[in-house]
Amino acid sequence: MPGMKLLVVEDEAKLADYLRKGLTEEGFVVDVASNGVDGLHLAAAGDYDLVLLDGMLPGIDGLALLAALRQSRQTPVLMLTARAQVEDRVKGLQAGADDYLVKPFAFSELLARIQALLRRGRPAQTPAEATVLKLGDLELDLIRRKAQRAGKRLELTAKEFNLLSLLLRRAGEVLSRTELAEQVWDMNFDSETNVVEVAVRRLRTKLDQPFERPLLHTVRGMGYVLEARAP
Amino acid sequence: MTAVRTAPGLGARLSRSLALLTVVGLGLVCAAVYAVIALTLLQRQDETLDQKQAAIAQLLGERGTRHSVAEVQHLLGDVLAGHAELSLRVTAAGGEVIFDKVSAPAWPAKQRKFNVPVVAAGPAISVLLALDQRSDDALLQRLAWTLACTAVGGALAVSAGAYWLVRRGLVPLHRLVEQTGRVTAHDLARRLDGSGQPMELQPLIEQFNALLGRLDGAYRQMEAFNADVAHELNTPLATLISSCELALRRSRSAEELRDVLGSNLEELHRMAGIIGDMLFLSHADSGSDARRERVDSLAHLAGEVIDFHEAALQEAGLQAAVVGEAAAQVDARLLRRAISNLLGNATRYGRAGSAVTVRISRLDASSVEVAVENDGPDIAPEHLPRLFDRFYRVDPARSHADRNHGLGLAIVAAIARMHGGRASAESRNGQTRIGLLLREM
Is B311 near chain A, with CB under 8 Å? Predict the structure, then answer.
C-alpha cells in the first residue's frame, strides 16, 4: 500500500531509524516522533493513515497518548511494547489500540500487521479470489485441492497443500516460521522445535526435487519465499 | 521492613492475667471464710443470749419468790460469771432496780428485753439483757484485713513468679533468635540447633530448618540458573560478535554480507526465543493464571498439535496417536504449547519405528491428565525430578542442540502450574512418559 502516511512514535533512536528505513523502502511515507508530546501533537494534527506507538515513552506514556488521541481521532494505532504481559495487552486494547506487537518482533510480522490494519480501514474491495493459482509451471486448484507442476500431479498432504497455497498466494513475500505456524497450523506460539523447517523441507522434496528450477527458497534468518527466480 | 504491631510481652501479659486470676480466686476464698466466721459468731451470740435468758427467767420466775434480794443478786452474779461481755439490769415491779451490771461504757446494741412474772397474774419483773459484740467485731475486722492482705500479697507473689518463670522459659528462644540471626544467604547450609530446646519449640525448629533447606535448594538453583542464562546467551553473542568482526575485516561481496546477516539473524532469533521463554517462565512464577475456556475435545486439540508435528515425527520415523478423550476448562493456547513441547521432546528421544501416544485421561471430576509416551532410552532415576528445571540437560554433551535450548520441559511444568496442577515424569523398561496434570477450578 504505497503512498500511505505512517507516524512512528518511538524514543529509541536506533529502532525508530530502522523502522523509518524499512517502511520507507516498502513505499510508505514515514514521520518519526521521539517523544510522547511531539507524537501526540503530530498524530492529532497530521493526517496519518496509521500510528505505530511505543508503549513506554518519555513525556507522555503510550497509553496516555492513545487516550488523548482517541478524544479527537480514530486513526488506527498499532502498539509496540517490550512487555508481553496479557494485562498490558488488555489495557492497550481497552485504551483504543487496534493491534499490539511485542518487542522484539520480526520486520515481516510488523509489515503484515500494518497491512492488515490498513486493509481493515478500507471498504472491502472483494476481488473475486482466484480459484486457480499459478506461478511459473506450478498450478494450484484451490477448489479441487489439487496441485500440479509441469503437468505432473504433486501428492501433497492436506497441511502441505495449505502451506503451499499460502506461500503461493503471497508469492515473492518472505514468510517467517512463526507466521507459517500461525497461518497453516493455527499454532500461535513460538515453538522451540524445528517442525516448520521439517515441514517445509518435505514440501520442497515434493515440489522442487524432481524439477530443474526450484521455486521454494529459504531466506536465512527470515523464513521462506516462493518465487520463480531467474536462472 | 514494615512496622509490625506487636502484642504486649508474653511475660507481662501472663503475670498480669495470673495476678488478676489469683486476686479473684483468693478473694472468693477469703469472702467465703469471712462469711462463715461472721455467721458462726452471730450464731454463738444468739445462743449465749438464749441460754442466759432461759437461766435468768428460771431463776427469777421459779425461785425468785423463795430468795431474798441479796440471794437473787448473788445468783444473778453467778449466772453472769465468766461472761464479761454481758450486761444485765433487773427492775422489780415497783421500779426498784434489783441488779445492774453494765459491761460496756454504754448499753450495747444487741439487747433482749423480757418480763418475768413473779406470781401468776401479778406484777412482773422486767429484765434487760445485752451482749457487747465489740470483741467479735474487732475479731472480724482483723480477719478481714488479714484475708485482704493475704489475697493481694498472694496475687503479687504469683504475678512476680509467673513473670520470672516466663522470662526463664523464654531464654532458649533468645538463643534461637541469636542462631537465626547468624543465618545469611551465603550460609544457607547452617541449621538451627534444637538440642536443649523445650519440646514445644521442636516443631518450630524443625519447620524452620525445613524452610532453610528449601531456601537453600531454591537459592542454589537460582545461582545455577543465573550461570546457565549467562552461558546460554553468551554463546550466541560470541558467535555474533566474531561473525560481525570477520565480515567487517575485509571488503566483502553483497552476497557474502547477506549470508552473514542471515546467519546473525538466526542467532538473534535464538536469543529472542530464549529470552521470550524466560519471560514466560518468570511471568508464570509470579503467579499468573491460565485463561481458561471450555475445550470440548482435548483429543481434537492434541490431534491438531500432532498435525503440526506430523512432518517432524515422520522424519524421525515415529507414528503419533491420541488415546482417550475429555472435555475440560483449560487455556487452549497454553495446552497446545505444552503438548507441542512434549511432542518435540518425544521426537528427539523416541526410538525410530516406534509409536508416540498422547494419552488423555480424566482422573476425577476436577482433574485431567495429558501425557505423552514414547519408546526410547531410559532416563536415569536421578535425573527424573530435575527434568523440569530450567536449562537442565540429562546429557550435557547434547547441550546447544541447535534449536532446543533446554526450557521446553520447564515451560511444560509452568503451564501445568498455571492450571493448578503439576508435571510428572516416569521412565522405565524403555518407555518414557511425561504427564501434565491439569486441575479445573
Answer: yes
**Domains located in chain A, CATH noted:** 5-121 (3.40.50.2300), 132-226 (1.10.10.10)
Q: Confidence band (pLDDT; 50, 70, 90) for A129? A: low
Q: Is B300 at the interface with chain A, CB within 8 A?
A: no
CB-nearest to B276 from A188, A190, A195 is A190
Residue range of the domain that includes B312: 293-439
In a domain, B252, yes or no: yes
> Nearest 5°: phi and psi at B115?
-110, 140
Q: Does B261 touch chain A (CB under 8 A)?
A: yes
In a domain, B251, yes or no: yes
- Provide the CB-side half-sphere exposure for B183 (13 A, CA): 17
Residue B42: inside a domain, yes or no? yes
Are B340 and A193 a contacting pair at CB < 8 A? yes
Read off the pTM.
0.64
**pLDDT tens for residues B295-346?**
999 999 999 999 999 999 999 999 999 999 999 999 998 999 999 999 999 9
10 Å Cβ neighbour count for B116? 18
Chain A residue with the nearest C-alpha to that of B311? A199
Q: Give the whole-angstrom CA distance, residue A25 versus residue A3.
A: 11
Number of residues assigned to chain A = 231
- pLDDT of B358 above 90: yes
- Pair A67, A77: CB distance under 8 Å: no
Q: Using one digit for the tens of pLDDT, what is the confidence trace for B185-225?
A: 777 778 888 787 888 888 888 898 898 888 888 888 788 77
- Exposed, middle or buried, A153 (CB in 10 Å: 0-12/13-18/19+)? exposed
Distance between CA atoms of A216 and A229, rounded to whole angstroms? Answer: 10
